[in-house]
Structure formats: C-alpha cells, structure tokens
Amino acid sequence: MVIAIDGPAGAGKSTVARGVADALDFTYLDSGAMYRSVALAALRAGADLDDADRTAALARQLEIEFAGGRVLLDDEDVSDAIRAPDVSEAASHVSVHPGVREAMVGRQRELIAKGRYVAEGRDIGTVVSPESPLKVFLTASDEERARRRAAQTGEAVEAVLSSQAERDRRDRSRDHGALRAADDAVEVDTTTSTIDGVVAEIVQLARQRGIA
C-alpha cells in the first residue's frame, strides 16, 4: 500500500514525504533516487545518455534498495553521489526512456507490494500505483522552486530558473510517465506553507481515509 506524493522538482516532495512517512511509521520511497542511480551508473559506464537500449539494459541489471534512509546501488551507498548536479541533469535524460521507466516502475511496484510506503516522484499516482488510496500533488511557484534549489546547490537563482523550465518541459511532454496530477489527487501548494504544516495536512488526510 502506498501514499503517492507527486509534483515538480522543488515543490517539497522529498522533505514532505519523509515527514509523512516518519509520522505514520511508513517507509519512505524516493523514486527519483532510483532514476538518479541509473544515471550515475550510466555516467560511470560512459554510456550515451540518449541511447535508450543501452540505458534500459543497464537499468534492468541494477540492484537499488533503500535502507536506514540511505540509497544503495549494488550494495554501495550512493546517497550523496546521486545528488551531484551532473547526475541530476543525467537523470532527466535517462528517465525519459521507456525501457528505463519500465524497469524502475517494476521495481517500485515490487517494493510497494511488500509494505506500507510513502512514495514520491512524478508518476506515482498516475502510473506506478494509480490505485493508491491517497494521492497528493505538490506544487509551488516557479520562483520559489528555483530559490529552494539554488539554496541547495549554490547556483544562481536565474540559472536554476532556466534549467528548471527546460526540465519541466521534458517532464511534462514525455511519452511515458509524464508529470501530471492524477484526476483524484489532492493538490497542495507549498509556496508559502511550512513543511510541518504540509506534513500535518497530509497525515490528517491519511487518517481521515483510514490509511493510518
């Protein structure tokens, strides 16, 4: 069973999903970390990120697990490595390939079937687990999302805004797993909200629906 939290980069998905998982004693599943892991593996292998067949074959071979809040790629802790800017950019390329998405969606479904998860990403409620009893779509203004990202990476806000716009365009126009809110998702704007407030709102929704 899964609580699905989707939305664009910078909307607060990771922080909110972790908070909800902790509050409900669920397991946190970061789907983006899985695509980042594929990207890291592809970069290390010197693979062409636009080679759909090569990256899909690579994705099918990888063992990606979550343990103690860390991300393990073939038993190596890559939690920090997958957050590097070059890996983030590479992830937005490899994640558009149908074969890569098929491999990762399959793995996510395997994990979800075995426990109670709060999963965050861009297509959890629409593709990975459309039967989720609670789907949340987080949003925030473009400027606020860029400001948050710039604070994390040290980049200029203007530069982040530019790359963010291109990433959003790719995410929304991809043929498989495009970024969009599920028809029955609850939309939550985090632009001016506190993390604690958003977490509390989602936890209340979960309890109202008998999920926890």
Structure description:
The chain has 212 residues and is of the alpha/beta class. Helix content is 52%, strand content 16%. It has nine helices and eight strands. The strands form two sheets. It has a five-stranded parallel sheet with strand order 2-6-1-7-8, with helices on both faces. Strands 3-4-5 form a three-stranded antiparallel sheet, with helices on one face. It is globular. The termini are close together.
Short description:
By secondary structure, the chain is α/β, with parallel strands linked by helices.
Secondary structure layout:
Layout: E1 2-6, H1 13-24, E2 27-30, H2 31-45, H3 52-61, E3 64-67, E4 70-73, E5 76-77, H4 85-94, H5 98-113, E6 117-121, H6 124-128, E7 134-139, H7 142-153, H8 157-173, E8 186-189, H9 195-208
Parallel strand pairs: 1-6, 1-7, 2-6, 7-8
Antiparallel strand pairs: 3-4, 4-5
List keywords for this structure.
five-stranded parallel β-sheet, 16% strand, globular, three-stranded antiparallel β-sheet, 8 strands, alpha/beta, 212 residues
Order of strands side by side in the largest beta sheet?
2-6-1-7-8
Strand tally is: 8
Mean pLDDT: 92
SSE ordering: EHEHHEEEHHEHEHHEH
C-alpha-based Rg, rounded: 16 Å
